[in-house]
Design goal:
heterotrimer, A alpha/beta (273), B mainly alpha (255), C mainly alpha (255), B: mainly alpha, C: mainly alpha, MetI-like fold, 82% helix
Chain lengths: 273, 255, 255
């Protein structure tokens, strides 16, 4: 386990050995059930994620994307294989690995305001109480939530609620951000805005991101790399570096030749499986 | 789920160790009867008809009070539900009378009716009236106005409208309210008997206690528990059989 | 409802209440209804007034309130703690739920003879009975509440490595609070009823005893005064809890 339990400040992120990968997954396998009812969700999956890399994972339903994310978060234990995070094996959840759930409505405390929800991460990370107000204000401003800080989640739209969840995860100062189809339930315009936000934040803080989506355009738009998973059992079909220039723009990048070529390639892969 | 038997572990365990403790001289307590004796008393009470007579007496008062409350509550509830202006005028007076604990009426009804069925039924009726009334009002309020408009277009008489549209539409929620009131009726009846009415299960328990027949007392307690549970379970089964919609309303009612 | 209509209905409600009192007054004056059983409102209110101003009412009033609150508070706290423990362990849920389901419909007052046996006709008996009666609604509601906290929130707490105590304080307890408060409201009503019943039973100081004594000496206005005060306690307690609920559950109504 990591020797520090508190959350890192962002200045500490760059000090570790640079060539050590953020995540090293070796021959990961995950199965549920016993005997004839045993279902193998993931089989023989190996993966490396570099520090500060933005990795997108796409695949049809049932390919184990969410399971993989939960394994990376430490919320579940694999039946075979190992996962190393910054050189140390993953044995359970950690505040360094923040996870943004898909069903944002169920992942926010309904009895706390937006500010309260963000503060929850600060409280848990043992940030001194005097700093809370300021950090909440900063994070709210970063995520465009300043006007809603005293509202309850039930009063907000889906997009706003998802921003709150992201803000709370950012409050943990994570070195790894895991996102499970975070924008799946949102409308196109909101989605695009949040895509750019997340990309920008990851870039600024140097956070490693593992981003799951079923939207292959989103995956190419956001990622430094796209991993395509096949289903039954879940395994890596293709690992594709995204050679599209940064910074990216919603309109121009999506018309870029390389973008379109990747789109064709991945679409073909997904169709075949 | 074969784990159901786990629920019996504690009661059985308690009984067994209690019975075992009885056989150790210095653990015995005068007032804690031996489970075996309690079992015997229960058997004799039932077989001899004593418990059953008491049960009938209690139910007589409970059901009488429940019926009175149901009639008044349903009629008044429908009327007030359909006429919101009337409900806002009468409502506060109802809210003033409602919080009075039903047992507070025991001395009053005793004075008016003397000991016996009527006094008990009156207290039960007071206790059951409010839940029935309130549930009926809200059930009627919740009737889709579209249905009421249908009644108007068809030019239904008031009676027809009540019987063919209003009551059936509100019925499942009302049924849940009635089930609750039924449980209340039993509880209140037993309470009145324990306090002072010399009839029924409650009185049986009190006189057993006063006559120092403790095994009888515990037996009566168990029987009262069984009757209460039986009533609750039985009314549940009836309700579920009759209308699966009630189950959804019950869940709503609880929230 | 527009402001005018609201004032109108408030006005109408007052008129209606006064109307009822007026009818009663007339019927009593004309001796259509027995003035012994139904003393006129004026006599009742003047009796109540003299009791309040002379201070005579406050001793029994406060005795009943203290008794009720003391037993209810103890029962509620215990109920929440036990509920959390039971809900937290699937094993204990399997072990205890059938037993709890059996005890739930039982009239709490049936425990009175047993309590008299154990504690005699004393305040301890009263507290024990009140606590026994009011713990069930809270306990069952707490189990329900703790069991239905959104599981995703627990996952989030695990992902953030919250301490167990933090998890309970920041996720479990607030999540279960709506159910707990609903159960506590029922528990308070039960506590009031049992306070009155045990006072009547054991001649303990309080409004229950006062109204019973008033009945025995046929001092009906005094009886009614006591009943009104009991209604006031019920009303006040319910209002207080609703206020607490509104404050603690502000997030629920925010839409």
């Amino acid at each position: 386990m990591l020797h520090k339990d508190n959350c890192h400040t962002s200045s500490e992120v760059g000090h570790a050995v640079h060539d050590e990968p953020a995540i090293q997954v070796e021959r990961l396998a995950m199965a549920f059930g016993e005997g004839p009812a045993r279902r193998t969700i993931i089989d023989g999956l190996s993966l490396t994620v570099a520090r500060g890399e933005f990795l997108c994972i796409v695949g049809a339903s049932g390919c184990g994307k969410t399971t993989l994310l939960r394994l990376l978060a430490g919320l579940a234990r694999p039946t075979e294989g190992r996962i190393d995070f910054h050189g140390k094996p993953v044995n359970g959840p950690s505040r360094e690995r923040a996870i943004v759930f898909q069903d944002y409505g169920r992942a926010l405390l309904p009895w706390r305001t937006v500010g309260g929800n963000i503060a929850l991460a600060l409280e848990t990370c043992k940030v001194p109480k005097v700093e809370h107000a300021e950090r909440v204000r900063q994070l709210a401003e970063t995520m465009g939530l300043s006007h809603a800080v005293n509202h309850y989640p039930s009063q907000l739209s889906g997009g706003m609620q998802q921003r709150v969840q992201i803000a709370r995860c950012l409050a943990q100062n994570p070195t790894l951000l895991l996102m499970d189809e975070p924008f799946g339930a949102l409308d196109a315009i909101t989605r695009q805005g949040l895509q750019d936000e997340v990309a920008r934040l990851a870039q600024v803080h140097g956070t490693t991101v593992v981003f799951i989506t079923h939207d292959l355009e989103e995956a190419i738009y956001l990622g430094d790399r796209v991993v395509v998973l096949a289903a039954n059992p879940g395994r890596i079909l293709r690992d594709i570096p995204v050679d599209v220039p940064r910074p990216r723009h919603q309109l121009t990048t999506r018309e870029d030749q390389k973008f379109l070529a990747l789109r064709h390639e991945i679409f073909g892969l997904l169709e075949g499986h | 789920m074969g784990k159901r038997w786990l629920g019996a572990v504690i009661p059985v365990g308690v009984l067994v160790s209690w019975e075992a403790a009885w056989h150790i001289e210095n653990v015995r307590m005068e007032s804690l009867s031996r489970p075996w004796d309690v079992g015997l008393a229960l058997f004799h009470g039932l077989a001899g008809g004593e418990f059953l007579i008491a049960t009938a007496e209690t139910f007589q008062a409970a059901l009488l009070g429940f019926a009175i409350a149901a009639v008044i509550g349903l009629v008044a509830g429908v009327v007030l539900g359909l006429l919101p202006w009337l409900e806002s005028v009468v409502g506060p007076s109802i809210d003033a009378m409602r919080p009075v604990p039903s047992v507070a009426l025991i001395p009053l009804t005793l004075m008016i009716f003397g000991f016996g069925v009527r006094m008990e039924a009156a207290v039960v009726a007071f206790a059951c009236l409010w839940p029935i009334l309130i549930v009926t009002i809200s059930a009627v309020r919740g009737i889709d106005t579209a249905l009421l408009n249908v009644a108007r277009v068809l030019e239904m008489s008031t009676y027809e409208r009540m019987v063919k549209i209003i009551l059936p539409a509100a019925l499942s929620r009302i049924a849940v309210g009635l089930q609750l009131a039924l449980a209340i009726s039993l509880v209140v009846a037993v309470t009145v008997e324990i306090v002072l009415n010399p009839r029924g299960l409650g009185h049986g328990m009190m006189s057993a206690q006063q006559a120092m027949r403790f095994d009888q007392m515990y037996a009566q307690l168990l029987w009262i528990g069984a009757v209460g549970w039986g009533l609750s379970y039985g009314s549940q089964v009836l309700l579920d059989r009759w209308s699966p919609a009630c189950r959804a309303d019950r869940a709503k009612e609880r929230s | 409802m527009t402001r005018n209509r609201r004032w109108l209905s408030r006005f109408g409600a007052i008129i209606f209440a006064l109307f009822l009192l007026a009818v009663w007054q007339i019927l009593a004056a004309l001796e259509v209804i027995s003035p012994l059983f139904f003393p006129s409102p004026l006599r009742t209110l003047s009796e109540l007034w003299s009791q309040i101003t002379s201070g005579r009412i406050w001793t029994p009033f406060s005795s009943t309130v203290v008794r009720m609150v003391y037993g209810w508070l103890a029962a509620s706290l215990l109920g929440v703690v036990l509920g959390a423990l039971i809900a937290g362990s699937r094993f204990s849920k399997l072990l205890l739920t059938p037993m709890l389901e059996f005890i739930r419909p039982m009239p709490a007052s049936a425990i009175i003879p047993v309590a008299i046996l154990a504690f005699g006709l004393s305040n301890r008996m009263s507290t024990a009975v009140i606590a026994f009666g009011s713990i069930w609604p809270v306990l069952l509601a707490a189990i329900q509440g703790f069991s239905t906290v959104e599981p995703r929130l627990y996952e989030m707490a695990d992902a953030m490595r919250m301490s167990a105590w933090d998890r309970f304080r920041k996720v479990s307890l607030p999540g279960a609070m709506p159910d707990i408060l609903a159960g506590a409201r029922v528990g308070l009503a039960v506590a009031l009823i049992l306070a009155v019943v045990t006072e009547m039973q054991a001649s303990l100081p309080g409004l229950g005893q006062s109204i019973l004594m008033a009945q025995r000496s046929f001092r009906t206005p005094e009886l009614y005064a006591g009943v009104i005060m009991l209604g006031a306690i019920g009303f006040g307690a319910s209002m207080l809890l609703q206020w607490v609920e509104r404050r603690l559950l502000r997030w629920r109504s925010a839409q």
